[in-house]
């Protein structure tokens, strides 16, 4: 009656598991591992590169752009009907106004 035994008995011996792939978390190192850990923690944008929806964008309430560095290149889609982006550099602590009238300010975040 050996054919009625569960397959699990054949796949594992002690702590090691045979016949399957290792956990990807054991293979990655460095920034790739930190990115994977951030994804596992629920942060779907650890590098802060996804598009940000513009808020009021006034001088008193500028759009906050996260950055782990002292400057960041920003692309603004000034008009929803435009097919191009306006690029500008943002510097930490300096309010910057796009040609469309929106104000932007860099917001420091911890590096990954
Ligand atoms: Zn703009």
From TrEMBL:
InterPro entries: Cyt_c_oxidase_su5b (IPR002124), Cyt_c_oxidase_su5b_sf (IPR036972)
Keyword hit for Disulfide bond: no
Classification lineage: Eukaryota, Metazoa, Ecdysozoa, Arthropoda, Hexapoda
Entry keyword set: Metal-binding, Zinc
Protein name: Uncharacterized protein
Species this protein is from: Mythimna separata (Oriental armyworm)
PROSITE patterns: COX5B_2
One Gene Ontology CC term in the entry: respiratory chain complex IV
GO biological process: mitochondrial electron transport, cytochrome c to oxygen
């Amino acid at each position: 009656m050996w054919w009625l035994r569960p397959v699990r008995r054949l796949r594992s011996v002690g702590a090691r598991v045979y016949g399957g792939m290792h956990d990807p978390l054991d293979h990655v190192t460095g920034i790739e591992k930190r990115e994977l850990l951030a994804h596992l923690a629920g942060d779907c944008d650890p590098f802060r590169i996804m598009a940000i929806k513009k808020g009021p964008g006034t001088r008193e309430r500028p759009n906050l752009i996260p950055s782990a560095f002292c400057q960041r290149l920003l692309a603004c889609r000034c008009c929803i009907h435009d097919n191009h982006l306006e690029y500008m550099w943002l510097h930490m602590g300096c309010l910057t106004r796009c040609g469309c009238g929106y104000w932007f300010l860099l917001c420091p975040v911890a590096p990954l």
